């Protein structure tokens, strides 16, 4: 007869059993998982909110302009942004440089208000504010102040993950994911200002990417903020002369490192602080999270290695250090959603005009090298396309294959070469203004964006831009 187990023996047996159990369970789990190639989610109800007129997806330059213009046109607006501030590439991307901004309306208002805040630095190569350097934190403060004054609802750290359409192929709602879980949001009109055309793609729209079917695309760049001796930053400030790009590269080569971008750029803020763009990440698809992750890590390491190498040369670089890198890598090439008009290279060459023009691009065709080898020969160029100032029509901002969806910014309907001109942020703001006005009118008149009379859009767009111009004059007079 076996006698009763002692307490110590019982504990020992239990411990052994517990130690063995996870191994058996994990082995069974792994074997079971190896049989599966997909996971099917159970159907579930998602809270649906329907309390606004216009939903803007993405808070970059195009998105903030769309939201502000829609609100100033009388619409109740909600905006979703996946990062922790408004401004997109301006702020979480630390771009620090606005291009092709000499346009009436919100462009002028933002420029003047940054200047009034002491957050706009002069670009010595331009006297008309078409290009200028700005302080990133000042831009964040300004944009959030404008949104709060207009009572625009905005939610950070939220990404659009699904689009719901009704039986007539009209966008009915979007679904977001955040710390609050999965939520659905309905509105009469939606604007895709995600940069990469995420909403259009989720809605089933056709889209293009890169130069052709083999997709050679423009590289990404991660911005950084450096601190260094004032004399060094002043001497290599590329805002003063583009020749400083070559001189800065020579300094890096002297330090024993070759930058992946052959035209490294430094924008001096003064007081020993500057923004730098000194890297290229080639062949990255912006809608592939793994690729973007690796590109971000590679770029951040390059920024660190270059600044450390310069530091070791001593002299004017003795005190250089990398202070910060951007929250998001800068994307030049993303999805271009098919619209009711495609802006083409022929438009750029001809300097085309449209009756429904919402803005005019004055920037050159700017194609950055697609490979490191090409970069060594020419970091960027026009690929022989001589650009004339050309119009962007409202039709290029209206999705062709679904109703109730507008686009603004990089993801509008255009080909590779036209996009290489209009993608700069001054144009994104102007496009956002028009999309916001059209969305507000669409909601108010209960008409789809493509059904709106052009005269109604043009009249309201002029009103909104005149209001912004007056705000700019007021800011400048203070």
TrEMBL record:
Residues 1-30 form the signal peptide. Keywords: 4Fe-4S, Iron, Iron-sulfur, Metal-binding, Oxidoreductase, Signal. It holds the Pfam family FAD_oxidored. Coiled coil: none annotated. This is Ribulose-1,5-biphosphate synthetase. PANTHER family: COB--COM HETERODISULFIDE REDUCTASE IRON-SULFUR SUBUNIT A, FERREDOXIN:COB-COM HETERODISULFIDE REDUCTASE SUBUNIT A. InterPro entries: FAD/NAD-bd_sf, HdrA-like, TAT_signal. GO terms for molecular function: 4 iron, 4 sulfur cluster binding; metal ion binding; oxidoreductase activity.
